[in-house]
Amino acid sequence: MPNNTFMLLYLSSTVHDDTIQGYTSTNGLFMSSYGSQQHILHPEDLLPFLRKPMLLIIDSDKQNSFIQLSQKHFDVPHLSLFGPIGAWKLNTCPLPHDSIFTKTQGKYLQVFSNKKDSIFNLFLNDSLGAFCRMTDVDQMTPDTKEECSNLLKIFYEKLSNEFFTCPKVPQTIQLFMADPFARMLILRFVFCRLVLLSLKLPGDSDNFDVLLPTSNPQIPSEIYESATCKNIVKDLANVLSNSNWFDFDE
């Protein structure tokens, strides 16, 4: 692999518990609907690839072993982005078999537990679509869509500047930010986390951290606290008339 490239590995799967020949693994991921042992990916399977730069994205209910794996260094850049491992719940809400809801501002906020409809995956592929889907916006005029797209473009430009000027950003992340494709994934990841951080949640919400995407190495809190970026997200919500879903001042 040339020195100026990296491997991108995107995993979206479910956890698997198994014991084979005395070896126990509680974090293998099903990579096929067949569910046999040969279709289960274990963290150890990735070890040979860690000798080269890697951007690892995992959207799964169980990620601990992969987080530990990302701490094994071979003096090459390695960045992991992990989707949320929890979901918002409210006992008084109806719970369809494929979704989990929470009540906020008189509405139901839908967070899909089915990984085929992962909100994290949607944010990384269509940030504006994910933003609308989470706040019950099902249609918009062409002019509104263009205005929102322009705001999102400005957001990413300002956010990029924050990454390159913040002294606390790890060098590994800086290296991946130099690649246009990796940079867009990182910026969309930050947008996802910032939106989820700003959502209004029930007062009795517990374990809020599991509702948020994480990274290793961690992106500094200063990036998420950027007033400029927050204001653009606020403007985006105002354009879509869904600002009542958020607490931007907190």
Roughly how much helix do the residues carry, as a percent range?
Answer: 25-40%
The major beta sheet can be summarized as: 4 strands, mixed
Number of domains: 2
The number of helical segments is 8
Structural class: alpha/beta
Tell me what portion of residues adopts beta-strand conformation. 15-25%
What is the end-to-end distance? 45 Å
Computed over alpha carbons, the radius of gyration is 19 Å
The total of beta strands comes to 9
Mean of pLDDT: 76
SSE string: EEEEEHEEEHHHHHEHH
Shape: globular
Q: Could you give the order of strands across the largest sheet?
A: 1-5-6-9
List unreliable stretches of 5+ residues.
19-24, 32-36, 88-116
GO molecular function, one term: transcription corepressor activity
GO biological process, one term: DNA-templated transcription
Pfam family, one: SCAI
How would you characterize the overall build of this protein?
GO terms for molecular function: transcription corepressor activity. It holds the Pfam family SCAI. The structure is a single chain. Helix 2 packs antiparallel against helix 3, helix 2 crosses helix 6 and helix 4 packs antiparallel against helix 8. 35% of the residues lie in helices and 19% in strands. The strands form 3 sheets. Strands 1-5-6-9 form a 4-stranded mixed β-sheet, covered by helices on one side. Mean pLDDT is 76; it is low at 19-24, 32-36 and 88-116. The N and C termini lie far apart (45 Å). It has 2 domains: 7-82, no CATH class; 99-245, no CATH class. It is α/β, with parallel strands linked by helices and 250 residues long. The chain has helices spanning 64-69, 119-125, 127-134, 142-165, 171-177, 180-198, 221-224, 227-239; strands at 7-12, 15-20, 23-30, 40-41, 54-59, 78-82, 99-104, 107-112, 214-216. It is globular.
